[in-house]
Task: structure prediction
Amino acid sequence: MALTKPSPLFPTYAELKELNLSDYPQLNTFLKDKPSWMSQHWNWAKDYLLYIGRNKSEHTYVRFRNDIEKFLLWVILVDLKPLDDLRKGDMLRYIDFCVAPPVEWISGNLHDRFIQENGYFTSNPKWRPFRQTAPKYDKERVLDPKRYRPALQTLQSTFVALSSFYRHLIDEEICFGNPVPLAKRDCKHLIKDSQVKSVSRLTEQQWQYLLVTAVELADSDPIFERNLFVIATMKTLFLRLSELSERQDWTPLMSHFWSDEDNAWWFKAYGKGKKVRDITVPKSYLPFLARYREWRGMSPLPTKGEQNVLVEKIRGRGGLTSRHVSRLVQQVFDAAFDKMKTEKGLDQAQKLKEATTHYLRHTGASMEIERDRPLKDLSEDLGHSSSATTDTVYVQVERKRRASSGKDRKV
Result:
């Protein structure tokens, strides 16, 4: 039997808060044409996502919305069984579906769920629940949707979102059990990974090419001063993309740089779990901060209570979105790749083509480990809940010793 074409169920968090189904004609019709228990399920999911959007970050809302939306579409269009009747075996069948979804449910591009037309939100016919994308360094690759396979991390995130959803339903006394943990325990697709883990980072040489390129761009055209500041800040202060971006409940300001009674500088960052942490600011970073501020017509260093936005828009008011910050970083990555490829060859430059913004945080942290900085101090700067997390992610001493002892063995 042919599957019904999937249709988007939930807009952005801001739109969901104000949602009136009469403004979403296709979604409204889609729900009205289904049995009443299906529209009831949609309301359960809507209430849960509003809770996530209100109490978690916008990034968490987007991630959980993607997983809950896919699951609900499977329930409504494929399985046809109420949520509160699903058991471990049903959840395992859903994961099988996620591992090999119908090609009609897969898109090769990111599309908005809804398009505004004549005052209404129209369901985007190009949108699909699953997305298959080419690697960042090979965007021209043509992908075959029949070969779609989700990453292990994607499946793990699915289990996290679904378990959270069921816990919410239990709290609301809608469901009386959570089948997700049992399904996760028995899932054949979750492979325990004991392999050697490598950190997504740049080498010292690649980092120097990136930094020098950013300086050269800024020297040649002042418009790139923001790029230089962002690159230096994310690497040196170990910032996540979201921690440099403007969010609904937080805008990074110049006054988030502050000095203590010993004239040591700190930066106040708003990180995961709505936790604010103070990050040490090294003296070597201050010239980059001063250069950027002077370009904006400010004093070299911030003053107490200063309300200037940390990284502001060139046109308009306010701070930059995470997507805009990412574009600034990517401009420098692209230029540094071209420069290093010309001077050192493709092999040595390739990592700059593959790199994402998160490489900067990983690079900064890895270099701190290599200079023997105390793990506890670095862990607090990174915002990890414990030093064990930092040790697991960044400490590569045992791996390097193992590689060294094994590389000279004979055939």
